[in-house]
């Protein structure tokens, strides 16, 4: 039986893993700044991990401070808001010129039993500049925006970038970011010409088994509506809604 604390802990670990990934990559790019009520990453040669996130539940003061900071930033930063306090404080963002761009669902899975896999799909860790450039192109095809290959190397201690292959054909991307006993699964996507062939499910099964074999106890992710049903099928549970805003001036 799940207690409220168990659910709350999973939510915290999900959000901590996500923000840790942004922070780690932002710091590597010398593009991370921490202020009193929020922190942000602003990489001028990549569309990710350009985010501004709050340390605590947003209020009018922090919404205004975030707006002031973003108005001095020459390119767009996404501002995530996770409605975990049921405070509806996102209304402060909307009142000060922020517009919702898209939503995601925070999900998690307690790891244990391995998942059945087919042998044809593999994932390969990016280790060379050529592989990093390939990863950047595949991600762009899958998601429609750019994560620069310059962010992928040299290797991180807690973060790995993978290309998925079916036989010799590249089909998609994924980022794995771990902290403590949690494996965060990010940027998992399949390029358009390889969709509707079951590769997303095969990729997730491979990633989950890799996480189990490495001793992790919890998997977390943030799903789009397109991917949510697959993750539910594999046993993930929905935990919270994440609204993603941009400042109107930076649309």
Mean pLDDT: 94
Strand arrangement, largest sheet?
4-11-5-10-9-8-7-6
Query: N-to-C SSE series?
Result: HEEEHEHEEHEEEHEHE
Largest sheet: 8 strands, mixed
Instruction: Determine the CATH superfamily of the largest domain.
Output: Gcn5-related N-acetyltransferase (GNAT)
Q: What amount of the residues lies in strands?
A: 25-35%
Domain count, please report it.
Answer: 2
As for the CATH topology of the largest domain, it is Aminopeptidase
By oligomeric state, this entry counts as single chain
Low-confidence stretches: 1-5
Shape: globular
Question: How many strand units?
Answer: 11
Give the radius of gyration.
18 Å
CATH class of the largest domain, please? Answer: Alpha Beta
Architecture per CATH nomenclature, i.e. the level-2 architecture of the largest domain: 3-Layer(aba) Sandwich
Structure explained in plain terms:
The protein is α+β, with helices and mostly antiparallel strands. The protein folds into two domains: 112 residues, no CATH class; 120 residues, 3-Layer(aba) Sandwich (Aminopeptidase), CATH 3.40.630.30. Helix content is 33%, strand content 31%. The chain is built from six helices and eleven strands. An eight-stranded mixed sheet has the order 4-11-5-10-9-8-7-6, sandwiched between helices. A three-stranded antiparallel sheet has the order 1-2-3, with helices on one face. The N and C termini lie far apart (45 Å). The N terminus is likely disordered.
């Amino acid at each position: 039986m799940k207690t409220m604390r168990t659910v709350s802990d999973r939510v915290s670990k999900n959000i901590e893993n996500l923000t840790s990934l942004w922070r780690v990559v932002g710091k590597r790019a010398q593009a991370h700044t921490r202020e009193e009520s929020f922190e942000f990453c602003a990489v001028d040669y990549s569309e990710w991990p350009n985010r501004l996130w709050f340390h605590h539940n947003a209020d009018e003061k922090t919404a205004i401070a975030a707006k002031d900071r973003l108005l001095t930033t020459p390119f767009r930063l996404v501002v995530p808001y996770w409605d975990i306090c049921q405070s509806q404080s996102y209304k402060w963002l909307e009142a000060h010129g922020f517009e919702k761009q898209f939503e995601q669902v925070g999900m998690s899975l307690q790891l244990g039993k391995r998942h059945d896999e087919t042998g044809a799909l593999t994932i390969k860790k990016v280790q060379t500049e050529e592989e990093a450039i390939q990863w950047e192109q595949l991600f762009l095809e899958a998601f429609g925006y750019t994560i620069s290959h310059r962010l992928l190397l040299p290797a991180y201690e807690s973060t790995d970038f993978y290309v998925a292959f079916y036989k010799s054909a590249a089909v998609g991307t994924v980022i794995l970011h771990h902290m403590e006993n949690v494996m965060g699964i990010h940027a998992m996507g399949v390029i358009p010409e390889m969709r509707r062939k079951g590769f997303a499910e095969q990729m997730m099964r491979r990633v989950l088994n890799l996480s189990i074999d490495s001793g992790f106890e919890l998997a977390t992710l943030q799903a789009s509506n397109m991917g949510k049903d697959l993750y539910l099928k594999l046993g993930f549970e929905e935990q919270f809604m994440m609204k993603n805003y941009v400042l109107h001036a930076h649309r």
